[in-house]
Structure formats: C-alpha cells, structure tokens
Amino acid sequence: MIEHQHWHPVAAAEAIGTQPVAARLLGDDLVLWRDATGAAHAWPDRCPHRGAKLSLGRVDGGRLECPYHGWQFEASGRCVHVPAVPAFTPPATHCVRTFAVREAYGLVWVRLADGAHDLPAFTAEGDARLRKLNCGPYTVETSAPRLVENFLDMAHFAFVHEGWLGQRGASAIDDYRVDETPTGLRATQCKAWQPQSNLHSTAPAQVEYTYEVNAPYTAILTKIPDPGSVALPDWRESIALFLCPVDTERTVAWFRLAVADFDSPDQKLRDFQDTIFRQDQPVLESQRPKRLPVDLRAELHSPADRASSAYRRYLSRLDITFGVTR
Ligand code: FES
Ligand code: FE
Question: What span, in angstroms and rounded, lies between the C-alpha atoms of 108 and 7?
C-alpha cells in the first residue's frame, strides 16, 4: 500500500511515558514505547514468540518485555533475554520488525515502509509569534479522507456551524482559487462571513482563508479576519488537521493550533475547537459511503466544491486506496 510510505501521526508524544502503549495505523496494531534514552519506538503489537500483544507488557531497563513469557527486546528490536533459558543467547533472527519513528508537532509519527516523503510541513510551527497547542485526539467513525474534505469545505459553515463559523443568510461562497502544488493542493482567496470565527471575535467578520493539503491525510488552514473584529491585535491563526487513518472507516484526529494568543488558558482554546468539532462529528459520521468516492461521477458537485474535487483528484493521482472508494 502506497500509504505505508507516508508519515502518519499515531499518538500524542506525551501519551508515551514509561510503559508501552497500543496504537493502530492503517489497519495494523502497533506498540509504542520509549527506551532508556527517551527515544520512541513503534513495532507490530505482536510478540514473534507466541503472538501475545507486546503493549500488555512493560518496559524494564530500556527493554520491552513481553507479558507472556517475559522475552525482552532491546531498542533495535532484537530479543536479548529469554527468562526460561537464562543462559541462551538468542540469535539475530530472534527480533521484531521496527518502523521508522519521528516526533514532531507534539505527536509521534510512524512510517510503515521506506519512502521518499517527508513529514507534512506546517510552516506556522516555526513562527515564534504564534503559540502552538494540540486539540484532540478525536476518534471519528469515518474515513480520514471524509475528514480532510470536511476541513476544506466552506459551504457547510452556514448550516453545521450556524452562529459560529457561518449563518444562513450569508451562505454564498464566492469564487476561490485552487492550485496544485508539488505536495498536494492549495486553495486561496477563500472568503467566509463568520459570526464568531475565533475565541476573541467581538463582531461578525469577513474572514479570508487559505487551505493547503500537503499529505494524503493532512490539511492546513490559515485564517485572517477583518482587523477590528477581534479583541486581540494582529490576530491570525493556522490550524493543521493531522489524521491517523486507524482503519478504513475509523480515524483519530488532532488539531494543531498556531495562534497569536499567549494568554488564554489551554482549556479555553481547546473548548472552542471541541465545540466546533462536535458540530461536525455527527454529520461526518452520517455520510455514506464512509470511504470517500474519488471517482468524481459518484457524487454531485457544485462550483463551491472545487477544493474537494481537487482533493479527490489528488488522492487518485497518488494511488491512495485506504479510506477511499473508486
Ligand atoms: Fe512473547 Fe512468549 S509470546 S514471550
Ligand atoms: Fe466544520
């Protein structure tokens, strides 16, 4: 599967402490754990001895110990101790598969097969004027591509987020631009009339959005409201949607916020995102099929949907199959 060659977030970095944690990615069970140096590891969650879940074991002296017979595996994946036969030196073939792991954006990322792709870029991350904060995880009973498409979709604001990101009397979506980029697509000149576009809105405002898709299951928006409609000066924000495609029809989502607000408590910023996301969730989970049809003839489209159509073409171009129908 081509998806194996991309990086995917599997857990919050802080969720992996001193004991192993179970995760799931692209239909496979993983165990995540940290060795004595603090480095994170991702392996199949299956002991090569008798198939027990390694995530039920424990970390001891920088080694992962299986819950069943106590075999211990060092960070390289090699088994170095078989308690039932203490004098036995396991051969190099006594080992687990290991996957590439990176930590970025407060998340642990895993790549299941070698590939040329880099982690998705989030340019706001390096902007010291913006505070970074993760919201989630949100477990959603639908495919990752349905979530990405929802994130790119402005035409639902007036209905799903009425009184917040839109209002019924102002549902028209002006023309906007969509361009292909080397890693995906970008939509620019997107405008929305929003009663309460962020935590600090003091008045309804025209908000200008830019959207970017730069990996199959990652999208980023940047929004800048009319000055004067926000209590904080120079308000702007970027939000990355980072998705773990757990199963074809189940997804774990995080939002990474980069906002010009260093004062509000974390919980207040998270509450705003939670409110918005809980409005999306029931509609998202109601969509059928749950997998995104990438054949453009399978659903109907309007000119307001050109970002989602471009996203479907992009998934086709990349030969993405997980979470889509053809
Ligand atoms: Fe893991 Fe036996 S099943 S040690
Ligand atoms: Fe929404």
Answer: 10
Q: Which atom of ligand 1 is nearest to the CA of 54?
A: 1
Report, as an integer, the average pLDDT of 182-191: 96
End-to-end CA distance of the chain: 15
- The residues lining ligand 1, judged by C-beta closer than 6 Å to any ligand atom, are 47, 49-50, 52, 66, 68-69, 71
Distance CA 58, CA 33 (A): 9
- The whole-chain average pLDDT of the chain stands at 96
285 token code pair: 């989970």
Position 228 confidence tier, pLDDT thresholds 50, 70, 90? confident
3-class secondary structure per residue, 193-217: EECCCCCCECCCEEEEEEEEEEECC
What are the pLDDT digits (tens) for 299-319? 999 999 999 999 999 999 999
Closest residue CA from atom 3 of ligand 1: 50
210 burial (CB, 10 Å; 0-12 / 13-18 / 19+) is: middle
Residue nearest atom 4 of ligand 1, based on CA coordinates:
69
Q: Model pTM greater than 0.85? A: yes
Write the burial class of residue 319 (CB in 10 Å: 0-12 exposed, 13-18 middle, 19+ buried): exposed
Burial (CB count within 10 angstroms: exposed 0-12, middle 13-18, buried 19+), residue 64: buried
Pocket test for ligand 1, best of 55, 66, 73, 95 (most atoms within 8 A of CB): 66
